[in-house]
What does this fold into?
Amino acid sequence: MKYSDILTSAFTALRRNIGRSTLTMLGIVIGVGSVVLMSSVGASMEKVILSQISSLGSKSMVIFPGSNQEGGASQVFAGHDSLTFEDIEHLEKLTTIDTIAPIVFMPGPAKRGREESSAQIMGVHPNFFHNQKMSAAQGRLLDAHDNDRAARFALLGPDVKEELFGQSDPLGKEITVGDRSYTVVGVTKALGSQFFQNADDRVYISLSVARQVTGQKYASYITMLATDSFDVAFAHVEGLLRYRHKIENPKNDPEKDDFIVRSSEQANAILSSVSLGLTLFITTVAGISLLVGGIGIMNIMLVTVTERTREIGLRKALGARPRDILLQFLAESVALTVTGGMIGLIFGLGLAWIIAQIIQGFLSTYLFAISFPSMIAAVLMAALTGVIFGISPARKASSLDPVESLRYE
Amino acid sequence: MPSLISLSGLHKSYFNDEVETAVLHGIDLEIDTGEFIAIMGPSGSGKSTLMHILGFLDRPTAGTYTFLGENTAGKNDDDLAAIRATKVSFVFQAFHLLPRATVLENVLLPLLYHPGIASIDREKYARKAIASVGLSDRAGFLSSQLSGGQKQRVAIARALVTEPALIFADEPTGNLDSASGLQVMEVLEKLNAAGHTIILVTHERTTAEFADRIVHIKDGLIESDTSSHKRRKAGADVKLK
Ligand SMILES: Nc1ncnc2c1ncn2[C@@H]1O[C@H](COP(=O)(O)OP(=O)(O)O)[C@@H](O)[C@H]1O
Ligand SMILES: [Mg+2]
It folds into this structure.
């Protein structure tokens, strides 16, 4: 029997029993569909995060107060006081640190007349804009001169500007934060969200002003750029802060420190471990669903072989060799799983596309992405499932005795 | 020229759970190309068993079966399948058509296993076979939409399509009313007249009488072997044992 005939026979048989074929494929459709969906979402997320990391560059570092034990960054804003401005003066002297920018959070809200904004108020050192690679879309950024003389200037993120000023020109206008008023000197370029916080919904004022207003003796967090190698800078920062905070931590136990140093390199590493986790998860889901789907297919194929015993006897009487029958039934189960896989692929991609449209509404950097390797792997796995779970029904069919089969009722 | 089929001392026993059921007890038989032979006997006498062995669906337990001058003892399953694909074909009492396939698809089926016929010629052969049983207007029908007599004619077309050396028909009228049974027998008669060798298995005398030669089987042995000269075609070479 020719291979093309085997293939045609397989699809003809599936079409003749379309209802059962559809039900049988369902497991594979769901399995492959969910794998394709999740790998697409994973690829999209990876792109979002990677674009943020690469936008900051590999030398970018952040120090948060608090210890890892307490949950890292989410605990940061609760007001730990471990990163003092004295610490920062010493950190500045490290040759491995290029620029350092402490940040002090200030209580809001920012208002303009009766318009009130939900923006976060951040007192930042002018280095901050350099570290974050920020620039002004309108007017100018805050500079060292503003900081030195504690000028009551404000720099708005584009979302705040939109909220408080709409289409009108904000430059030179006043906003109030607490009981003080500030003159708007600029609007930053849109950054989109950074690590799932909206970086455009912020009001920046000079660090010196924020310190005066809050009386805070410590930084809420610190951003830095390493001069050269991040690794060396990281070790220096860690060593210096442990020395100053009298922390003995030769084993680098993150729970003992009262600060957390993060870099985009590390975020990268975390990301790749996250995506490894995601891959493992997807593989497990794929494995389980294909196993379940495969067992379903094996059962249905065994039923099919029994039901078609007379057909098998007939085909043998017409000259089919055992291997012709084997290949025919194997082709049927593979055709089932591959068709199911293709349908699952289309559904998975469709769903991922719809999800991308929804997420884009609030995360503009989220783009619909396709993971070709996982798509190909999913369909190949489906085909392999067809072979593995189709082989025993096909063997059974091929070994039937023609005379007995023709007599089967 | 050797006989088409030559059997000597053919025995067949079935073994189920070490219980031996001896069915054929030493059959000697010669059949030549072009014959229309009926194997007759009561139910359970071993007619079908003999036909299955002659048609390479089963093997004898003992004795020799020479087909076209060749001893078939050494042939493996694939060899037998190849002979079934090219040299012999069957018409069964139960028709054995694929119910969800059309007449044309059913007749095309044997060509899948025939190595000598090119894919593009298949439909031509199938339509010719369907025409020869008078069912051209039903070619696109599902076989389940046909009457019993029409189904058996489709089965005959399917048996013809590979142009085999011989056609076996096992109780081909057994599931038919007498009118359609007659029609089917007339088709077989016509095929024989056109040169096809036909081995008919039946327990009905009226059906057997369409053949030129009747071999009676009883309890696994040949009881009689008679030629009926009234239907003998000129030039047919029938050997009587
Ligand atoms: N697979 C088998 N196992 C055991 N006995 C069988 C088997 N096939 C047929 N027989 C027996 O062989 C005898 C002949 O059967 P069969 O050739 O079908 O007879 P017929 O076609 O003449 O009616 C019967 O008694 C039947 O029961
Ligand atoms: Mg019988």
